[in-house]
Known about the structure:
The complex is a heterodimer of chains A (70) and B (148). Chain A has 70 residues and is mostly beta strands. Chain A has one helix at 17-23; strands spanning 2-5, 8-11, 32-36, 39-40, 56-61, 64-66. Chain B is built from four helices and eight strands; from the N terminus they run βαβββαβαβββα. The relative contact order of chain B is 0.22. Chain A binds chain B through residues 6-7, 27-28, 31, 33, 35, 40, 58, 60-68, 70, and chain B through 26, 28, 47-48, 50, 52-56, 58-59, 61-62, 65-66, 69, 78, 80, 82, 84-86, 89-93, 96-100, 104. Strand 6 of chain A pairs antiparallel with strand 4 (53-55) of chain B.
Amino acid sequence: MKIIVNGEEKDVAATTVTGLLSELKIRSPEQVAIELNGDILDRNAYEQTAVKEGDQLEFIYFMGGGHDAY
Amino acid sequence: MLHYLNIERQILDAMVNHARATAPVEACGILSGEGPYVMDIHIMTNGDNSPDHFSLLPEEQFAVAKAIRANGEKMLAVYHSHPETPARPSDEDRRLAFAPGIVHIIISLADPREPVVKGFLLDDGEVVPVSLLISRSVRQAQDGMVKA
């Protein structure tokens, strides 16, 4: 099944978003936010969200930080 | 793996100005370009709106990621400010550095008259300094020639 991930075509077997994260060997998958066909997915819905032929996905890593008290 | 970034003076100044304008809240943003050459700055909203923490808003990050790709560039660095502390990665900075290969730039305003800007790779909890080479024009640095 062909899908687009971050602008690149991928041929994958996964049928859910969780399966896709695993198949693509995404590091720290729990810190990845995902947009599916323009909609940001609820992190708790990755397991139940189906991936279909032609879907367009964007993966981004959570980015944050802070400073310590010195 | 990038061990240095080449940054135009104009982009460095834009980061420092953003940090100053946002203080005492931490400022944050993204730098994009090709290889070690930073071509663009993307000023982002600090979703935490805090003097101690920052986080990028996913909706802004998705939009910027697509714009960077449309320009034929890559995300090279994420920057944030430390309004009152030194330009070194905090424990939280290291713990929350999930994106592999991204340079983390910290702008310290601890001395407001002399901002300090430093770069680091924070993959796997390790802190590896990244040199920031400041030039008048990245395009000139790429060409290896000076234009009028």
